[in-house]
Amino acid sequence: MTAQPTLSLDEISTGDELMFERGEKNEAFKILRREAPVRWNPGNEEVKGWWDITKYEDVLYVSRNPERFISSEGIVMFEPRDPEMRLQAANGNGKMLITMDPPRHVMLRRLVNKGFTPRAVRAMEGHIREITRDLLDDIAPKGKCDFVIDVASQLPLAVICEMMGLEKQDWPLMFQLTNKVLGAGDPEYQTDVPEDQRGTNDAARLTGNMGTMGMFGFFAQQLEARKAHRRGDLISILVDSEIEGEKLTDEDLLWFCFLLILAGNETTRNAISGGLMTLCEHPAERARLQADMSLLPAAIEEILRWVSPVTHMARIATEDSEIRGQKIAKGDRVVMWYPSVNRDEDIFPEPERFDITRSPNDHLAFGIGEHFCLGAGFARLELRVMFEELFARLPDIQMDGPVERLRSTFIGGIKHLPVRYTPA
Amino acid sequence: MKVQVNRDMCEGHGKCQSAAPEIFELRDDEISYVLVDEVPAESVARVEAAIRLCPRQAISWVKEK
Ligand code: HEM
Ligand code: SF4
User: Which is nearest to B15 in space by CA: B52, B64, B63?
Assistant: First the structure.
């Protein structure tokens, strides 16, 4: 066996999108956990520095102190140095559930969280199964497809669009726009930029802006329509909601829609496709699952741990503190790396083993605490129904060519996953 | 020791009930209720586990005056 090329600490920067695109993040995080579990990354000429937090206990600590580590000054790693760009990047800060701090955060969350409880989720199972079967009906006779485009992206898209009451004709637009916002750095989605200029920072900025503007334009129309006629969907509920006697402003409503459509779309997709890929790469575990589908709920937790579709959330320190002996100064940005904590050797025995019956399995793929993923129940249900239906219908589905990953430090995305199967 | 569930935070994930069924009960309103006034010594570790596992950080010990 030839020795694998290994990374050294000096070569690792979590700011390097290409490292994620090449699929090297797990190796890098292993080194960080071992050699520099709380590590200052100085950033560069364009972006400010940040702390990489890679151990489980430290992410728990940060997540559980939402007043000491706030969300309202940015939840992603990169903060531009240029003041004008910084303003632009800070546009949504403090305006969405995910970028808001207590106490207003809890009030806003309580407007919608009854729509996401275990009971609300269970009530959707039949419908989610119907959507899934329809999707599989379309691909089953073909014998091969791009699993991401044809299946994995379509179920979450349908579920969140229906919850928000969006017409089917608008779904493809939502797919396009969410890709532009969260895949802004990936040349594939930089379609508003001439081909020879793609892959640059400017191209990424422009693409993100086009996606955001497109979304705001679209949802402004949706709001007007709901104001004229309520429809019983999530947007209509929000239109009528109040916090301390006050209605949400149009701006609040638009940001809420923006968050829901992104969070609903760009996450579960990657858990489904990442899950299928992982199962294909671990044939013994896959066989064990297909022989006994009652193992599926535990297998899904292991898929979530293994894939960790959301790679990070950032917080800003509001006071000086210390984490694992490192001095964190007031104003510093700390970045919590979920794929890393989910393979933390101190928490998970044999973390590099994909074990569909792992127990306990208290992964943090959905975060924890104040901002714990609102859609976790839906994501789990979508995953369960998808794999039940998929393995019933196309039990021999296999990868059929190289996967293409998203160039992003935020979403552990898979853009294309060619698969083949016996037509059914 | 007494334990409490913050109703504003709880979203009915039920991790507490799995960790310490003798202490927490998820009721029809999808909120977890504490079944006992005082947590017996043999349940303390399980309550600690529930506190740690609750995704919403909704469970805490009541501070003694
Ligand atoms: C496997 C799929 C998913 C993963 C891995 C995921 C992951 C996450 C993570 C890591 C957070 C931040 C947690 C924190 O800061 O502590 C989050 C928040 C959120 N997620 Fe998800 N998510 C998924 C699916 C969904 C779905 C399907 C929806 C909507 C239907 C959704 C809606 C949200 C919302 C609204 C928030 C913000 C909550 C808040 O700030 O209070 N997510 N998610
Ligand atoms: S684990 Fe937390 S959120 Fe879930 S039911 Fe118990 S107290 Fe509520």
Answer: B52
